[in-house]
Design brief:
Belongs to the complex I subunit 1 family. With 453 residues, the protein is mainly alpha-helical. Helix content is 61%, strand content 1%. The chain has a domain at 80-106 and 131-376. It has a two-stranded antiparallel ribbon with strand order 1-2. The termini are far apart.
Length: 453
């Protein structure tokens, strides 16, 4: 059967007793929390290594308990509520930001659906649950989390948190569309939105090889979605003091930090599921070891891939500076969105030709012909645009009066300041005072000097 026509077999889900569902839910929560605690220490260690510093080395062996100590410290700090805040929304915002971050992990497979493991004598899958539209569920809960940031900025009653919240909303809108287009390419190839089915369809070849552009698009958008450097504009301390969480302290501030790192783990797990084969062992291992994808081993490969993507987050933070806000918007709307749309149409065309039983050579010729036609049209448009620019006569700069409104104003683009009279140099002023011969009056100062002349 063609992968495009594959149907989901979700009959193995929904058969667990209630207590086993609770155990699996607690495991998913614990997995996220432990990964977050480790990621915080790992980030500080890796960035310190990049900057030739030591990093945390006091709490626990090699400083591994530093993030746990920071969490306890934040919980014991004074919880300050600003006077102008909308208290209900102010308290609710961190909760709205944190809870959706934990929800997406429910549909991520840690192991094959057909390879059931034994937990307290019961056979079950290594996944909490799955849905025919599991990826739409992930997109939905990821979109809800942004409300927490926006409400935090609005409810604080302060200017800079409000600007940070608005930046986060604009950033989410700019990058969510390109992320959805990257997902759609995977849906076209796998024929399903179920996470377990998508991983099953990567048995022969991972989608990072079949859909490299989709993988690159998702990597860029997932960094923008999580508000991480170099796209951490909502928390830009250079111009917003601290962003949407400026007025938060104690456990509420800790919830925002927790939501950020949990979102990092979630998007890394989604990238692993969609493009890196999910729980499947890498090729060199799966090639000579038949049991690599059975038992509890798939969970190891899944965790290793997630940690590698988390290292990519840390690497970006230690390498790239923060972009400007206009560069952030330009990348989302003028680069990622057009590229994702063109790539999606290209993938859809290839899948349609494959379903019509066209050979690989014919598909390559059709795709190459379409790309050449687009490039030719773009070249012709650029040629005519350059000719039109050369034919334009430069307009005379508009006059500028710096005191037109009664107070000094700077010139607009295209306007020039009037020439400023040349000031006498220090040497000339000394000659004037001494009555030197090299100085000459610019003109008569009064009637007497005029008559003397």
């Amino acid at each position: 059967m063609s992968p495009f026509l594959a149907a989901e077999d979700l009959s193995m889900f929904g058969r667990d007793p209630w207590w086993l569902v609770v155990v699996k839910a607690v495991f998913c929560f614990a997995f996220l929390m432990v990964t977050v605690l480790f990621s915080i220490v790992w980030e500080r260690k890796v960035v310190a290594w990049m900057q030739l510093r030591v990093g945390p080395n006091r709490h626990g062996p090699w400083g591994m308990l530093q993030s746990l100590a920071d969490g306890i410290k934040l919980m014991l700090k004074e919880d300050v509520v600003v006077k102008r805040a909308d208290k209900v929304v102010y308290i609710l915002a961190p909760v709205v930001a944190a809870i959706p971050a934990f929800m997406a992990i429910a549909v991520i497979p840690f192991g094959p659906a057909g390879n059931e493991v034994s937990i307290f004598g019961h056979r079950t899958t290594m996944q909490l649950t799955d849905l025919p539209i599991a990826m739409l569920y992930i997109l939905a809960v990821a979109s809800v989390g942004i409300y927490g940031i926006v409400l935090a900025g609005w409810s604080s009653g302060s200017t800079y948190p409000l600007l940070g919240g608005l930046r986060s909303a604009a950033q989410m809108i700019s990058y969510e569309i390109a992320m959805g287009a990257a997902f759609a390419s995977v849906f076209l190839y796998s024929g399903s939105m179920s996470t377990s089915t998508i991983v099953e369809q990567q048995s022969d070849r991972w989608y990072i090889l079949l859909l490299p552009v989709s993988f690159i698009l998702y990597i860029v958008t997932m960094v923008g979605e999580t508000n991480r450097a170099p796209f951490d504009m909502p928390e830009s301390e250079g111009d917003l003091v601290g962003g949407f969480n400026t007025e938060y302290s104690s456990i509420k501030f800790a919830l925002f930090m927790l939501a950020e790192y949990v979102n990092m783990v979630t998007v890394s797990a989604v990238a692993t599921t969609l493009f890196l084969g999910g729980w499947r062992a890498p090729w060199p291992i799966s090639g000579f070891w038949e049991g690599a994808n059975h038992g509890w081993w798939p969970m190891l490969w899944f965790v290793v891939k997630v940690q590698l993507l988390l290292f990519f987050f840390i690497w970006l933070r230690g390498t790239l500076p923060r972009v400007r806000y206009d560069q952030l918007m330009k990348l989302g709307w003028k680069v990622l969105l057009p590229v994702s749309m063109v790539w999606l149409m290209l993938v859809a065309t290839m899948r349609t030709l494959r379903n019509e039983n066209y050979g690989f050579t014919d598909i390559a010729l059709y795709v190459a012909g379409g790309l050449i036609a687009v490039l030719l049209i773009s070249f012709v448009v650029d040629v005519f645009r350059d000719k039109a620019k050369k034919a334009e006569v430069p307009a005379e700069p508009a006059g500028f009066d710096p005191m037109a409104g009664g107070f000094p104003v700077p010139p607009l683009p295209g306007q020039e300041l009037p020439p400023v009279p040349r000031r006498r140099s220090h040497r000339e002023r000394e000659l004037i005072v001494s009555g030197g011969v090299d100085t000459q009056s610019d003109g008569p100062r009064d009637g007497k000097e005029a008559s003397d002349g």
